[in-house]
Amino acid sequence: xxxxxxxxxxxxxxxxxxxxxxxxxxxxxxxxxxxxxxxxxxxxxxxxxxxxxxxxxxxxxxxxxxxxxxxxxxxxxxxxxxxxxxxxxxxxxxxxxxxxxxxxxxxxxxxxxxxxxxxxxxxxxxxxxxxxxxxxxxxxxxxxxxxxxxxxxxxxxxxxxxxxxxxxxxxxxxxxxxxxxxxxxxxxxxxxxxxxxxxxxxx
Length: 203
Description:
This protein is mainly β. It has one helix at about 130-140, and strands spanning about 5, 10-15, 25-35, 40-50, 60, 65-70, 75, 85, 95-100, 105, 115-120, 125-130, 140-145, 150-160, 175-185.
């Protein structure tokens, strides 16, 4: 039901959206017949190859996040704050995601099926490459730890590059920012460094 043929002109028209990933080609048997007596006809095989068009990658990032000084912030589905990439790269196409902060370090939730193009776990920035499923698995559980004794504002930047693997049409990118609020904490109770003498003026 994806095609229609004009009954007299023979024009073939696409009547519904085609998806190259689920159905990359169609074979149409087209028969033309005259109105003579006897009727004469001929059938031809028409092959339609569907070319996939690359669609933009879309990264979903949470709203502003907060964490205590010297604490750890985990971006995950369990915490309802995960970072998730959607793309039409399929199961074999590889995309890249770059994540960076200014005042802390990042550690992925896993590294199976990905490669580090820049940086490594425990650094301020990483660029990873892999299939879409592997990328999302690595991002689920991403841990941010602010620099020691740092409090104030930081920013997590996430840049996604689909590398044009979804089809023709070039490369698409997406850029997201998550503001990070690092709350100050008291490191410990105040300490008395020397004995104090108190003099009562009435005595």
